[in-house]
Amino acid sequence: MEFSHFLQINLASLPYFIPELMLVATLLALIIIDLVMKKPSSSGWLAVVALAGVLITLITVVNQYNLDSRSLFNGMLVLDHFSLFFKVLFLLAASLAILFSMASIELAGRPVGEYFTLLIALVLGMFLMAASTNLIMIYISIELVSISSFVLAAYIKRATRSSEAGLKYAIYGAFSSGLMLYGFSLLYGLTGTLDLYQLANLLSDAVAQNPLVVFLAVLFILAGFGYKIAAVPFHFWAPDVYEGAPTPMTAFFSVGPKAAGFALLIRFFVSGMSQPSLVESTVWQAIGNVNWPQLLAVISAATMTLGNLIALVQNNVKRLLAYSSIAHAGYALMGTVVLTQEGYFATLFYLVAYYLMNMGAFLVVIVFQDLIGSEKIDDYRGLGYRAPLPAVAMGLFLFSLTGLPPTVGFIGKFYLFAALIKAGEQYYWLAVVGVLNSVVSLYYYVKIMKYMFLDRPSEEKATALPVAFGMNIMLIVLMVPILLFGLYWAPLQEFTRNSIQFFTGVF
Amino acid sequence: MSYFDLTFYVFAIGAVVSAGMMVFSRNLIYCAVGLLFALASIAGIYVLLGADFLAATQLLVYVGGILALLLFGIMLSVKFTGVELRTGTLQMLPGLIIVAGLFLLLLRMIYRAEWAVQTPGDMLPTTTTIGKRIMTDLLIPFEIASILLLIALIGAAYMARRERS
User: What is the ipTM of this complex?
Assistant: First the structure.
């Protein structure tokens, strides 16, 4: 094709790329401010600039909602409601992470220029992950997210466990990227294309496709995606990284990159490995002669079961929440196995609920860490009497994580199970596993609450703890939507349902 | 067997053997040298496939740049030279079974699959095509890669910097 034709497409795509350009501008502004300003006084400004950049980007993203779905940059990226939904989620998670970082004493007195620069780069990577429709673009966006996260996990250099977190993250990341690339190369060798839509076309044409190749390719690629969402058996990094990373980053890792992994997984399977069903418009069919939905179902069941069982024996709250976040990846995966609009809606809805309750739970961990200097469950004894508001908030977040009414966690789980049951008998077993797991999870969530409320603090530690004003505000801000959406979830439901709009290709 | 095949097998065997040396040797210098030969053999295979630019990059960046740095790193950190690495093998039997199974599976797959084979034409320089595509349809991956490298640089500088206490 003509050289100028490509250039025109690239130029024409730029107006639809404004949010990403805003992020890049923020990133560069942060680097320059960090260089120009004097060190100790600049950290507040850096946070403000990062937050302002994220909020301006949020406005530009919301502005894109009235645009039609379209392909950008010669099929590298797409702009559709599905990607916009995730972009909004990422920006909300990032703004909370910036606020957490400012409020926590874990990062006080450290140079934060690189910290916020890397965080913004991470958000940019997640944006691209949610929008990529080309295997090269998928790989580069995953790497952008990974490399920024490695450094952020190891940000507290003097702390051995932080360095350990960064190193483990990097090693597992390199390994799973390698496997994923091998999977990509198999698909490329089979079809000769890197574009997801062409891939779907070619895979559906070849009826006599050797299922073994496609199966192995999917398996290897799932190693990359599974690493991002911390699904079993690619979850080994999660507990150590979550425990060692600075807690605001742990909160962010457990929500942001995980949601980005889900965005990528759903887009890859919807656009590249399935085609719309001819019978019904809200259902997809798996192609490539491989029953990969069944594979996802098995991974989902294994992920929630293993995550929950190991969480039972944890005595460090950060580690416990790490295993719980593995389990939640399993729950959210349930929605992706049925290949219906209902299922994807349930997954997206659950990710929003998970964002609210998990960010909240980690915020309480930050509050207590700043006050008592520990995240051991034993040290949480009697905190319900010493710091009532954070403890009550923790109770609410944990109830929501368990999936009890009247919280948004309950609604999210309800939709997931409903989607599975609606899709037919084939996945009843998965719903049963999910319900059993929720019961198991109740035990360890309640264990934290028992320590906080039923055990009295020891005599010398019976003083009330001074919780910072800002922390209280943030806790309340996170508690309100959990209760609100638990009772009146129609707006969130409508917003999410409108987001299941995939760009369908240009053929 | 044609000369082409013969050359290919020389490079392929070279790559496998030196990769084995890299993994199994207990001396870091030997490991690095093993890696050197593995990377160079792969570059040879790239040449055979007509990917001249890729081969040159492989030699310049990996063999010439990264590996030289790696060797300097090992030699400058006195602690490592001559020290036996303490490596152990855990779960020998299950590991062997899984690896052998995977190997057979991959072998079966490689022979069974109908690959989208492309017969190479005349060996022309690929740089023009690469340059054009990087400026046209692969523009965005190229630009994002530059941000990726910038971030990697910032991260590496941060990790390497001494923290003021």
Answer: 0.90
